[in-house]
Amino acid sequence: MFDATIATDLPKPAFYAELEQQARALLAGESNQVANAANFSALLYHAMPLLNWAGFYFLIDGELVVGPFQGKPACVRIAIGRGVCGTAAATKQTQLVPDVHAFADHIACDAASQSEIVIPLITRAGELLGVLDLDSPVPARFDEEDRKGLEALARVFVESIDGSLR
Q1: Is the pLDDT of residue 165 over 50?
Q2: What does the pLDDT read at residue 10?
Q3: 3-class DSSP string for 115-160
Q4: Which CATH class is domain 12-161?
Q5: What's the rounded Cα separation, in Å, for the pair 109 and 40?
Q6: Which of 58, 101, 137, 161 could form a disulfide with 112 if both were Cys (CB 3.0 to 4.6 A apart)?
Q7: What residue spans define the domains of the chain?
Q8: What confidence score (pLDDT) does residue 111 get?
Q9: Closest Cα partner for 74 from 100, 46, 41, 110?
Q10: Quick one: how far is CA 77 from the chain centroid?
Q11: What is the mean pLDDT of residues 63-83?
Q12: Using only C-alpha atoms, what is the Rg of the chain?
């Protein structure tokens, strides 16, 4: 059994360093995209405070399709360029949204969500695999330190599956 307990009172850089170590240990030796996404989303959801959704959308046939996640049921398909996830996919840039209601094209899958961060998943070859999406019921839950930490974690996930089944 894997224990994802991390002290939440650590400074964010230390918290993310510990979370990255746990993610590397959790994904070590496995390259299956679905298996790693399932465990990775569970790790984030249970280790990070104040989340109501943590999971993946994978690029399949030109659109984002929901993958493994933790939280309430989600939107199944998102067009590239639509909403926060589609924007992150289209731009290949992290979208840090302190107030989802102020994001012009926000897609509300869970009415409780107030803030969101979406990290594109890019292979070493520059190919978009999909996005990592985290939602919070707390406004402005995510900041630049979260962005840096979550981008590093997204790289750990991509490294674990790069070149494997998609």
Answers
A1: no
A2: 87
A3: EEEEEEEECCCCCEEEEEEEEECCCCCCCHHHHHHHHHHHHHHHHH
A4: alpha beta
A5: 21
A6: 137
A7: 12-161
A8: 77
A9: 110
A10: 16
A11: 96
A12: 15
134-153 residues labelled b (16+ CB within 10 A) or e (exposed): bbbebeebbeeebeebbeeb
Least confident of 8-17, 106-115, 123-132, 136-145: 106-115
Rounded to the nearest 5 percent, the helix, strand and coil shares of the chain are 35, 25, 40
pLDDT digits 0-9 by tens, 109-131: 777 898 999 999 999 899 999 99
**Tokens encoding 129:** 């695999």
> Where does residue 155 fall: left (phi above 0), alpha (psi -120 to 50 degrees), or beta otherwise?
alpha
d(C-alpha 108, C-alpha 162), whole Å = 30
Q: Which of 144, 90, 77, 98 is nearest to 122 (CA)?
A: 90
pLDDT tens profile 100-113? 988 887 777 777 89
Token pair in block for residue 10: 């650590």
Residue range 23-46: mean pLDDT, rounded? 96
- Residue 161 φ/ψ, nearest 5 degrees: -120, -10
Residue 98's φ and ψ, nearest 5 degrees, are -70, -25
